Amino acid sequence: xxxxxxxxxxxxxxPRWYARPAAxxxxxxxxxxAARAFHRGLPGYAPTPLVELPSLAAEFxxxxxxxxxxSARLGLPAFKALGAFWAVHRILDGRPxxxxxxITATDGNHGRAVARAARLAGRPARxxxxxxxxxxxxxxxxxxxxxxxxxxxxxxxxxxRAARExxxxxxxxxxxxxxxxxxxxxxxxxxxxxTLCAEIDEQLAVAGAGTPALVAVPxxxxxxxxxxxxxxxxxxxxxxxxxxxxxxxxxxxxxTALLAVExxxxxxxxxxLLHGAPVTVDTGRTVMAGLNCGTVSALAWPYxxxxxxxxxxxxxxxxxxxAADLATLGLPAGPCGAAALAGLRTALTGPxxxxxxxxxxxxxxxxxxxxxxxxxxxxxxxxxxxxxxxAEHAEGTENVERARRAD
Length: 407
Ligand SMILES: Cc1ncc(COP(=O)(O)O)c(C=O)c1O
Prior knowledge:
Helix 2 (34-40) crosses helix 8 (184-206), helix 4 crosses helix 8 (184-206) and helix 6 runs parallel beside helix 16 (389-406). The protein has helices at 2-8, 34-40, 54-60, 81-92, 109-121, 135-143, 155-165, 184-206, 223-233, 268-275, 301-307, 316-328, 335-348, 353-360, 383-387, 389-406; strands at residues 17-19, 50-52, 64-69, 101-105, 125-129, 147-150, 171-173, 214-218, 257-263, 310-314, 367-372. Residues 1-6, 237-251 and 383-407 have low confidence and may be disordered. The chain is globular. Strand 8, helix 9 and strand 9 form a beta-alpha-beta unit. The protein has two domains: 14-78 and 185-384, Rossmann fold; 81-181, Rossmann fold (3-Layer(aba) Sandwich). The chain is α/β, with parallel strands linked by helices. The strands form two sheets. A seven-stranded mixed sheet has the order 1-10-9-8-11-3-2, with helices on both faces. Pyridoxal-5'-phosphate (PLP) binds at residues 78, 80, 107, 109-110, 176, 218-225, 290-291, 293, 336-337, 373-374.
């Protein structure tokens, strides 16, 4: 039976893939350090762990592999508070209460971070959630005291709905994606995300690892990737020296390659890069709920099109396997967080792997950093969660309804 099934399974196929190594030479203005100073002053702030996993280095024939573990960031199970807290701080600065009502659409993590920021500031929050957000993630937003408004449709539709709602008086939109005319707040959010890159610099220096050869970043609308591009391509960013071979162009460290990873169900950046201009893709269902976005942030696009040098899409099965692998290695990752490992594995294995490896410029001494952007609690999609899906759905829905009644 087993061999018959194996014979029936389709041959491995090359992944959908984009590469433009010249992007490593692109530069931009550096990150504004104000957000980092703000984060340092927050109660409970501490750099999240950067964990070295030698078994992954051995698996992929790399020098060293590190995973930035964002499963516990400022009291929440994803990196998103870095952006939301800084943006909300700037919005509320000099604005006495009780309003404005903070509004956003979310795939889960960002909405919870905005709801937490609102609760800490004593302001109301109204959070719009599309189809496909795990009921436990919805319940966690409601538990912050926010009003949760389900939107029957995609993430992009929820973003539109939230933007319309924010036309009401005494509201403020805290959206982590941008469109023409709505740039300031998403820009703050990007500034906030860059804190995790600054932490990585310091942690790699302590580990004696220097500048990474590659950073793999999960992408939804691309704001996190924009922060990563700004950090690694920012011209005035002081970085430690590297143990990697000198840049072929002469002098100093070779620039870091940046690999964007998206679900096959929502590859808006990959398709836009391949197309050479932003395109909106139809999104499907994916366990990587936080990455289930159909349109790249307008603010991010110029940075990503110029500064990202590789992109790949991954299957749900690959993300689920990567999350299980990381759990076995003691690193708690939800499916979006594990997408970075899934992307590395998809790029470095299977048909065409040696060409992709060469395009990424990865030697056997390369230092690679994977951004694991959420813990399993943030987004408990996947086989275990799915088997308990009905009970969790009932419980989550009840909590949302309870929270709405309480308003
Ligand atoms: C856990 C997680 N990782 C990565 C991302 C991607 O961030 P961005 O939408 O800025 O690309 C998100 C976005 O919600 C997320 O929740």
